[in-house]
Amino acid sequence: MNLEFTAEENAFRDEIRNFIENNYPKHIEGKGIQDELSPEDMVAWHKVLGEKGWSVPAWPEQYGGTGWTATQRYIWGEENARVNAVMPLPFGVSMVGPVIYTFGNEEQKAKHLPGIKSAEVWWCQGYSEPGAGSDLASLKTTAVRDGDDYIINGQKTWTTLAQHADWGFFLCRTDPDAPKPQQGISFILIDMKTPGIEVRPIKLIDGGYEVNEVWLTDVRVPAENLIGEENKGWTYAKFLLAHERSGIAGVARSKRGVEKLKDIAKHELLDGKPLIQDMGFATKVSQLEIDLAALEITELRTLAGEQAGKGPGPESSLLKVKGTEIQQRLTELTLEAVGIYGTPDADSFPDDGSNDFPIGPDYAHHAAATYFNMRKTSIYGGSNEIQRNIITKMILGL
Ligand SMILES: Cc1cc2nc3c(=O)[nH]c(=O)nc-3n(C[C@H](O)[C@H](O)[C@H](O)COP(=O)(O)OP(=O)(O)OC[C@H]3O[C@@H](n4cnc5c(N)ncnc54)[C@H](O)[C@@H]3O)c2cc1C
């Protein structure tokens, strides 16, 4: 496999690097997921990309995709990671969007795809329930047909950013008597302003607020919001999960994180010498870089498969496990490097204009919060244990 980029691909990189440098919104420059981002900040870059026609690169061109090759999309991801760009949220762009253009009808495509492309409409994912996470097919939220509507009752949980969502895609049980639990599930789009929906916050260990419980009580939803066929929702749900998982690997972002870590370790001292010169610490950083390089090659191999027309399959489980393990090790090593300076709660730092200054160097701020936050990565999108089960069955054939 040739890992060199072609002259055209390098020219493409220059073009998009130039576009990012000139168009990335100044007011969110340098801000990352642990910074205070308003809902408007979270979609600011998405809106610029929507106008340029670059917000949904992976979609088929007829629905607004760019027609870029898988390698070009990879370069696009790398260049955005280089500036730590706040990327379009996945719920519309890489989750429900592909489900709608693949399984939805023409009305649904016309109604929902433009709002996803332009970032006008914010989506959330209503899959998990208190008793249905790994064992998703045991979900209990019901949708009962009543004339032209469904009446929906139940509770979803861990619903990311539902507090800002205009619409949600929900898995609901439409046939409680189906022979297998997977067979009685439907995929339904719900306007989050419909009466009977209550969104309750769940506070996370890093102090942030990004997930919710969503309670649905007698929520009346037009039956035209059903995607595909009734009771076939499991097929669409699995299709969506494969797309969700391949995006979670985050190789380009981890590469940037490793560079940042090495920089920190040059400035932090251990026994009077830069931490990066400590054999024990340097070994851990090197091992991380080796694992990341191996993951990158695996991802490029998957991309080559996609280029040849293969959709994301069980390899996405492999990318998810390794990618998230690396993300977690990166945050562990960063916290180890900055030590106690990583622990102050970033939100307690004085506002601009105060005489007090935050404790420790700027690069240490948020290190503990990020460490805690990234524990989620081995859980969401299907836990890593479940991904190993999938790899065992689907790739190793055991
Ligand atoms: C930050 C965050 C954001 C999320 N966002 C969303 C969202 O927007 N929408 C949404 O629908 N869901 C969301 N989730 C939910 C996520 O998909 C579930 O947490 C995940 O699927 C695991 O389910 P669970 O939490 O119920 O754990 P459980 O399924 O109860 O699992 C508990 C533990 O047992 C292990 N385990 C379970 N079954 C097996 C098995 N068969 N073999 C081996 N080990 C097993 C698991 O790996 C885990 O370690 C989010 C979760 C987090 C943490």
Structural features, described:
The protein is an alpha+beta fold. 44% of the residues lie in helices and 13% in strands. It is built from eleven helices and nine strands. A hairpin with an 8-residue loop joins strand 6 (197-202) and strand 7 (211-222). Helix 8 (279-307) runs antiparallel to helix 9. The protein is globular, with a radius of gyration of 22 Å. The chain starts with 6 loop residues before the first helix and ends with a helix. The structure holds flavin-adenine dinucleotide (FAD).
The main sheet comes to: 4 strands, antiparallel
Low-confidence parts lasting 5 or more residues at pLDDT below 50? Answer: none
Distance between the termini: 28 Å
The percent of residues in helical segments reads 40-55%
Nearest-integer average pLDDT: 92
**Structural class from helices and strands?**
alpha+beta
Strand content: 5-15%
Shape category: globular
What is the topology?
Blueprint: H1 7-23, H2 39-52, H3 70-82, H4 90-103, H5 106-118, E1 123-126, E2 142-146, E3 149-156, E4 167-173, E5 185-191, E6 197-202, E7 211-222, H6 233-248, H7 251-267, E8 269-270, E9 273-274, H8 279-307, H9 315-338, H10 367-373, H11 384-395
Parallel strand pairs: 1-4
Antiparallel strand pairs: 2-3, 3-7, 4-5, 6-7, 8-9
Bound molecules: flavin-adenine dinucleotide.
